[in-house]
Write a structure and sequence with these properties.
GO terms for molecular function: DNA binding. It comes from Streptomyces griseus subsp. griseus (strain JCM 4626 / CBS 651.72 / NBRC 13350 / KCC S-0626 / ISP 5235). Keywords: DNA-binding, Transcription, Transcription regulation. By secondary structure, the protein is mainly alpha-helical. The protein has a two-stranded antiparallel ribbon with strand order 1-2. The two termini are 27 Å apart. The relative contact order is 0.11.
């Protein structure tokens, strides 16, 4: 993300010391994450994002602008040279683990057993294994094995 849009001086943060709150301020609405999801799956044009999500054109325009303003997407000229397309930036691609975690949570908790749903596969067609964060010792990290170290401002 460009530094100019990241600082507290340029944005009214919900909770200025919390990375989760700041992230949600930037991409915490449903449409933004679905646009990023579709960009990760190859969508590039306004029309393609609109077709895949069903989002209203005015809302899609707003989300694309905000995602570009915050450095998650960038506009570039399409190979045909006749239109602009949207591409993920490094910052946008860095959301992959978060979307993977949301996807896998949804697979476990948002569907009835046996209910069909899409599957994320790797470049060889194999299902992506469950993502489990681990500590420096290799042990799985959980809500019970971690805690937030507060800054001086939010103690």
């Amino acid at each position: 993300m460009p530094r100019s849009s990241a600082g507290a001086e340029n944005h009214a943060w919900t909770d200025p010391d919390c990375p989760v709150a700041r992230t949600l301020d930037l991409v915490g609405d449903r449409w933004s994450l679905l646009v990023v999801r579709d960009a990760m799956d190859g969508a590039r044009s306004f029309t393609e994002f609109q077709r895949r999500t069903g989002i209203a054109r005015n809302i899609l325009s707003d989300r694309l602008r905000k995602l570009c303003d915050h450095g998650l997407l960038a506009q570039q000229t399409a190979p045909t040279g006749r239109r602009l397309e949207y591409v993920l930036t490094e910052s946008g691609r860095d959301l992959f683990p978060a979307l993977l975690t949301l996807r896998q949570w949804g697979e476990r908790h948002a569907f009835d057993p046996g209910e069909p749903h899409s599957t994320l596969v790797d470049e060889h067609g194999a299902r992506v294994p469950d993502f489990t964060p681990t500590g420096v010792d290799g042990a799985p990290l959980t809500a019970d094995s971690t805690h937030v170290r507060k800054t001086g401002r939010d103690r």
